[in-house]
Amino acid sequence: MSGIAGKAVAITGASSGIGAATATYLAEKGARLVLGARREERLAAVVDGIAARGGEAVGVITDVTRREDLKRLTDTALDRFGRLDVLVSNAGTMAVSPFDELRQDDWDAMVATHITGLLNGIGAALPVFRRQGSGHFVNVGSTAAHVVKSPQGVYAATKTAVKVLTEGLRQESGPDLRVTLVSPGFTHTEGVGRSASPEVAAALVRQRDEIAMPPSAVAAAIGFAIEQPAGVDISEVVVRPTAQG
Ligand code: NDP
Fold first, then answer.
1. Which end of the chain is more exposed for a tag (fewer CB within 10 A), N or C?
2. ipTM of the assembly?
């Protein structure tokens, strides 16, 4: 199956930012969606917005750090649509702070969300893709994996893990599956201001407001990877604002 129309796509972290924009973009192109995130009201607003424009989407409360939640997300695609064509692993948290602040809960959250969360998605979707003889993993990394900028050490390390896991998975995926890493630069989302460090959050929000690209730019990059013919794998897309050094 090529193109986007008719594909069954599950997206994690779909309640805001890049995930919500991707859901909207793909729904407009005719994808059938299963959307996961933890915040029920925000997720419902995305699902309702898509339905109001004639799209097809169902929301499933999902914490990607929980293996069973990812299983429920992929099972929902199978129940509703009879298949799962794409899993977009996008859930993330930009809880960056200097090491000296010892915000170890934030370090743990980034490891759990970006690494364990990604692995939970692979664990849930890979058997489905193998059974179908087709499937596409789209993993959202970051330009932080290309250049480490203080105080983003832990965030950059976990996004580097996303890059490495994606390449490892691609090498083992064989001719039937596709594996894509989408690495965004500064994107205008609420997540940018999520640091518990007030100065860091303020600086990142200032920078975001000066140079960031809209989340729709990342959504279009994800759509480009998905719409390729079955035998064509867009292995990596780096998309960043021109003003980002
Ligand atoms: P947002 O904060 O707007 O979106 C993050 C999404 O992830 C939300 O929907 C949130 O939903 C979800 N999420 C967080 N933790 C979990 C969890 N444990 N389980 C399920 N869902 C979770 O920020 P962005 O849109 O910017 O971030 C999306 C991705 O893009 C992240 O992986 C981020 O690292 C990456 N990225 C962002 C960049 C930027 O400049 N904005 C640049 C490069 C990469 P909820 O809280 O409802 O669960």
1. C
2. 0.99
